[in-house]
Amino acid sequence: xxxIQPRIQSTGVIVKSPGEIEVMRQAGKVVAQTVRAxxxxxxxxxxxxxxxxxxxxxIRGAGATPSxxxxxxxxxxxxxxxxxxxxxxxxxxxxxxxxxxxxxxxGAIVDGFHxxxxxxxxxxxxxxxxxxxxxxxxxxxxxxxxxMRAGNRMGDVSWAAQQAAESQGFSVVREYxxxxxxxxxxxxxxxxxxxxxxxxxxxxxxxxxxIEPMVNAGTWATKVLDDGxxxxxxxxxxxxxxxxxxxxxxxxxxxxxAR
Length: 259
Ligand code: MG
Ligand code: MG
Prior knowledge:
This protein is an alpha+beta fold.
């Protein structure tokens, strides 16, 4: 077997070959299928552990492996983060209620490559403010993706994501950012959701990035709960989280985790 060394830039960014991106498409499809299954199932009255079980069954049923289970000791297959929880919530006995917003973050490995995607869902009758927060998170994600083109710089992506959230009166989290993705769940480079246009890493074809804005109703500051995982807003305001795994191709961005 011929072993092809990954091309690693001086920045530590691993540029993927077309063959590697094709495998990542398969990982992205499993993640998208799992998110669809969760969106179809999630309702008030169920526990976050039930969602985790659905996700794990879907991922393993597709012949893939959950990215998060056991990652640095994380005990579940997905992250479920409700209301003031920003990211990394651990599924468990908590019952989802009408009016909650729930972030569902899913990762899967196919043939050694990861896919990673998150959505935030409104459960039943949420407040108009909560709905606006969820929509701003999705708008921030999409604004960032639109700038993920060869020849642009990371700051163009970051700035677009930031503007989409802040223009709606919300803030973007600073302490957690998106990331390169491939054989590792988290690779170089960092993909911040705040920054200055025209600055930072030059984007090139073959880069695969997980962009994941976390948008808060209050200030951007966060803290970690005593479980060592769950990130919450410092001020208790609610937060929405959206993510896609995106390949930068000559033709533009391709969302590998598109539903
Ligand atoms: Mg994720
Ligand atoms: Mg991620």
